[in-house]
Amino acid sequence: MFPQRLDAPQAYDIAKAMMDGFNRHYRLFRTESARAKHRFETADWHGQQRAQRERIEFYDLRVKECTLRLEKEFRAGEQPMEVWHQVKLHYIGLLVNHHQPELAETFFNSVTTKILHRTHFHNDFIFVRPAVSTEYIENDEPAARPTYRSYYPSRDTMHETLTRIVDNFQLQREFEDLSRDTGFVLAAIQRRIGNVKLRANFQIQVLSSLFFRNKGAYVVGKVINGFNELPFALPILHNPQGKLVIDAALFGEDDLQMLFSFARAYFMVDMEIPSAYVQFLRSLMPRKPRAELYNALGLAKQGKTLFYRDFLYHLRHSSDKFRIAPGIKGMVMLVFDLPSFPFVFKIIKDYYPPQKDTTREQIKGKYLLVKQHDRVGRMADTLEYSEVAFPRERFDDELIAEIQKFAPSQLEISDRDGDGQQEVIIKHLYIERRMIPLNIYLQEAFDTGLQDTRAREQMERSVVEYGNAIKDLVAANIFPGDMLWKNFGITRNGKVVFYDYDEIEYLTDCNFRRVPAPRNEEDEMSGEIWYSVGPKDVFPETFGPFLLGNPAVRDVFMQHHGDLLDPAFWQAHKERIQAGHVHDVFPYDPERRFAHPPQAPATAAA
User: Fold this and answer.
1) Tell me, what's the pLDDT at 602?
2) Which residues does the UniProt record annotate as the domain Isocitrate dehydrogenase kinase/phosphatase (AceK) kinase (predicted)?
3) Which of 487, 347, 326 has its CA nearest to residue 406?
4) How far apart are CA 475 and CA 526, in angstroms?
């Protein structure tokens, strides 16, 4: 019910306390993001990784703080529903002229559902839809930094303008030769736009903050000429001598999609108005959902909010049914999907076969590890939800039976909100971008026949990419555990990405060993293991029989990635990581890199 009067004296105070909680959260979030510049300038790579991990926890800590304050000062959980209606209206009033209203709405939802102990169904008290527009928000204070800067070069001043664009970020570390590097960028731009006529509106727009991730800083912007827009990103790295270089020039939507991939760690960006950054980025990548852009900027809770709104909108405009996901069923996770929706839903089963010595809490810990770790473009990001309600009529009966059999503790079927409609309520689930399982993708090539040129190329490219994916994970201190083809998927861009995390381990926690020589003929003929195996022991030589049964696959794998079967490869990487080395893993193809005489920067791990 919409309140006729705002007459509850405590309603405004509760709303104001919630807004104070959000403002504190975003102030701390932004401060940590801004410190990324100093960490980049001082080459504090371990500090950068630590900050990226810790920043993910900020949101839940602030929600908890705010919830405790509201309970202590206002006994918020005991307030009648009429008061909570008024709290929401007061909060909407506080969002007017706010610079992060959409994030503040999500914060309100998080706190309210904690206090009222409701999540999926009590929509009167949360922001199911945004109440305040995020369009055209800008800080009008004279000293405020704009969302983006515009530059208006001519052909004659392009080089000078590119140099000024980089200089304006005021990086406190010397470039090896900025004029040379901006010359490389200019040549790359000229190759893209050629000798076309420069129109009256010819300009370069660049977001005012650098994007920091791992060991790189990225300039992000677009070249505008008439009706044409060319998105670009310029990665800035440290060379072996500790000086800065522009490493490459990335152009177009596909390059930017790779940079902002859901399989990569979140950026650190100092943004006062995140919605304006997202709007600018959407102009560069119109096919990228806003939810994924908020995720990429480190605002994962807002990403979850937008994803769920997109999902509800899709449900209203579709009629197909949720089903058991195609492919080999997992031992630990029950996976289902909606054919018309490009994501899969994963539930942790209640029990596992004996060879899977794990628990629900351990599996949740593995997924949290992936969330907090650098995913180097090779591990799919996951969205984690609790108490999610689906319309019962949209669930295939076979899927319901599957959940009742393998995860009954996670399932409730009821009319919880009393509207006469049965709902399927899943207690806890993960949602991931849907990919083609690698084993299915390879089988498609085999079914076509490797005598077909395209089928052979598909097979070869997949096997090479599979090995590259494992090597990128190794560089990021990750051992996948279960390396079977079915645990990897193919993305729209042909990248191989890992997505089964229940056996994942830090590489540095594993003990890579050679298989001991048999002691006698009886050992050699035995079908049993005759040597001791510790809980973290790994024997790379034994990977082959599980992965390389097909001779054509084996030939390609051994040609490109035979070192993965050698314990020395794994041990060498483990020792380098333990010695403090942080590998370079680039979100673009190595051939895109500029040649920097006399010595190139450190090469990528894969």
Assistant:
1) 43
2) 320-589
3) 347
4) 36
Do residues 255 and 591 make contact, with C-beta atoms less than 8 angstroms apart?
no
Catalytic residue among 247, 337, 374, 381: 381
One-character DSSP codes across 518-541: PSSHHHHH-SS--S---TTEE-GG
Q: For this structure, is 500 an active site residue?
A: no
Longest Cα–Cα distance in the chain = 90
- The letter for the amino acid at 136 is Y
Question: Binding site for ATP: what residues are annotated?
Answer: 325-331, 346
Mean pLDDT in consecutive groups of 10 residues from the start of the chain, 606 residues: 78 96 97 97 94 92 97 92 90 95 96 74 71 86 88 95 98 97 96 88 97 96 95 97 96 95 92 96 96 96 94 95 92 95 96 86 92 88 91 96 96 85 94 94 95 95 96 93 92 90 93 85 70 88 90 96 96 95 87 76 39
- Measured between alpha carbons, how far is 115 from 128 in angstroms, rounded to an integer? 17
Whether the link from the prior residue into 598 is cis, omega within 30° of 0, is yes
H, E, C per residue of 90-130? HHHHHHCCCCCHHHHHHHHHHHHHHHHCCCCCCHHHCCCCC
Sequence-ordered alpha helix ranges (H) in 449-550: 453-475, 521-525, 543-547
Q: Is 132 left (phi over 0), alpha (psi -120 to 50) or beta?
A: beta
Question: SS in 3 state form for 40-73?
Answer: HHCCCHHHHHHHHHHHHHHHHHHHHHHHHHHHHH
For residue 461, give Cα distances in angstroms to 22, 210, 492, 496, 560: 47, 34, 14, 10, 11
Are 268 and 32 in contact, with CB atoms under 8 Å apart? yes
Among 314, 355, 305, 311, which Cα is nearest to 331's? 355
Q: Residue count of the chain, please give it.
A: 606
